[in-house]
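Priority: medium. Attachment 1 of 2:
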């Protein structure tokens, strides 16, 4: 590739800006991630105490003794943004983070592939667009790929220093980095294998600069080895068959490209596509990493029909992305879940239309592009700010509201509401989203199935707050020792009746 071609490939045109601007606009919807609230509460605690938590500070059951909070820096960032502008500022932050992801994707793919790559990423991952620390791992992995492509090896250890304090997904980055170094050594592709190896060692050392030292690796091993826990949690289930077939197809494209594409360029594809087949929570890694590389490979495999092949792959990706509601039979198709699926489909249509429009335009940057780019950026920021203030900040009917005053004493709560109760009222909870396979999680599942009454008695529970369709609610409706004391749009609150001597008299 000539110098002029490289310049044009790296130069972001007005068409690119339009595509990138579409991403934050598609991220403007009410907050609905259940874990966000305990992340905010933790960030608030860290800011107040100038320390990280090392024990359970939220649950009266103290099930998180020896808590290793390896997302503490993300939580401080979330809380700091919330302090500046409340819940709507968090919506804007989410929009900006995914916009930044689109910018990084443009840097890794180049001008000709970017429209297809972005459309595929949106189509396959939009249902995972939430404000959670895992977003920083996607940003970290894209940044790592850029640094490796450009040989900026000594910029990588500082990246891992930051990444290890933001999200445990840095381990995926280390695996990809190690794979690239091995591939470079085997194929003797590129110079500086020794320098990259030294940078890898420095990166491992950098991950140990955190409040918990080597123990940040402990949680990953705990979750990975607990099969019973993974089997019961929706985000850890194996993806549906259509996605598995799609991931296999991506791996086949990578394998067929090995003679035309340097092996180090294919390592991220092999790593993320394989990982995405193990759990649905990793689908977004396939969307943002593996699929764009596969699109790049198609230009080498079919240079004369590259555009048609790439568009075909994008359309297949879109079809797989439309699958989620029917693909998870274990997930109840609630109104909230169907709303996520509907946003996914709208985002897919918008992404495909924008990609087709952009692909038909000339990719050569012109003298007037700077003015057009500036106009698009200013307009997009204005629209984002206006849209964020003209909608509900939090998804309606998702969390308890009017019944929070009725919650007191030792409580049993719906797992997905634990963070909300902590953040809104500082209520000590039974369980929340921090769990990682502890025994209390299996007690919670047992209470949902059929054993609520004996478990509530064993734990000495005074109050229960659950949704109407929870298994625990069905059991307490007919229980003589429990009475319904409050009901709102989202929740039911049951309280244990006072025990009198007469109740035990013959």
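Attachment 2 of 2:
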């Amino acid at each position: 590739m000539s110098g002029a071609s490289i310049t044009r490939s790296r130069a972001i045109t007005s068409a690119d800006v339009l595509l990138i601007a579409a991403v934050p606009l598609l991220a403007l919807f009410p907050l609905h991630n259940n874990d966000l609230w305990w992340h905010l509460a933790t960030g608030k605690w860290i800011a107040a105490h100038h320390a990280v938590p090392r024990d359970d500070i939220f649950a009266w059951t103290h099930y998180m003794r020896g808590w290793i909070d390896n997302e503490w820096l993300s939580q401080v960032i979330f809380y700091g943004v919330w302090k500046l502008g409340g819940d709507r500022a968090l919506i804007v932050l989410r929009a900006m983070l995914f916009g930044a992801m689109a910018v990084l994707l443009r840097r890794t793919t180049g001008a000709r592939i970017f429209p297809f790559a972005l459309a595929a990423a949106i189509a396959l991952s939009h249902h995972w667009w939430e404000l959670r620390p895992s977003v920083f791992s996607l940003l970290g992995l894209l940044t790592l790929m850029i640094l490796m492509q450009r040989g900026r090896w000594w910029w990588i250890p500082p990246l891992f220093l930051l990444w290890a304090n933001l999200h445990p997904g840095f381990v995926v980055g280390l695996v990809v980095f190690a794979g690239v170094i091995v591939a470079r050594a085997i194929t003797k592709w590129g110079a500086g294998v020794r320098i990259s190896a030294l940078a890898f060692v420095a990166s491992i050392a950098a991950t140990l600069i955190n409040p918990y030292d080597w123990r940040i690796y402990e949680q990953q091993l705990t979750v990975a080895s607990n099969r019973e826990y993974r089997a019961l949690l929706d985000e850890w289930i194996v993806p549906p068959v259509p996605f598995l077939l799609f991931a296999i197809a991506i791996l086949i494209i990578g394998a067929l490209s090995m003679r035309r594409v340097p092996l180090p360029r294919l390592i991220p594809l092999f790593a993320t596509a394989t990982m995405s087949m193990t759990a649905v929570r990793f689908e977004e890694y396939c969307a943002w990493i593996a699929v764009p590389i596969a699109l790049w490979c198609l230009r080498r495999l079919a240079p004369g029909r590259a555009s048609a092949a790439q568009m075909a792959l994008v359309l297949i990706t879109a079809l797989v992305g439309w699958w989620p509601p029917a693909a998870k039979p274990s997930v109840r198709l609630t109104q909230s879940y169907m709303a996520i699926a509907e946003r996914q489909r709208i985002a897919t249509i918008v992404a495909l239309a924008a990609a087709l429009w952009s692909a038909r335009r000339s990719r050569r940057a012109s003298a007037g592009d700077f003015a057009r780019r500036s106009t698009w950026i200013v307009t997009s920021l204005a629209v984002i700010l206006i849209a964020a203030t003209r909608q509900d900040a939090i998804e309606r009917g998702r969390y308890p509201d009017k019944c929070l005053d009725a919650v007191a004493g030792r409580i049993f709560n719906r797992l997905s509401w634990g963070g909300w109760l902590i953040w809104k009222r500082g209520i000590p909870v039974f369980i929340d989203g921090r769990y990682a396979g502890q025994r209390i999680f299996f007690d919670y599942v047992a209470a949902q199935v059929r054993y609520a009454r004996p478990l509530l008695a064993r734990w000495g529970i005074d109050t229960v707050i659950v949704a109407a369709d929870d298994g625990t609610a069905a059991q307490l409706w007919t229980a003589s020792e429990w009475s319904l004391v409050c009901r709102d749009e989202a929740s039911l609150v049951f309280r244990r009746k006072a025990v009198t001597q007469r109740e035990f008299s013959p």
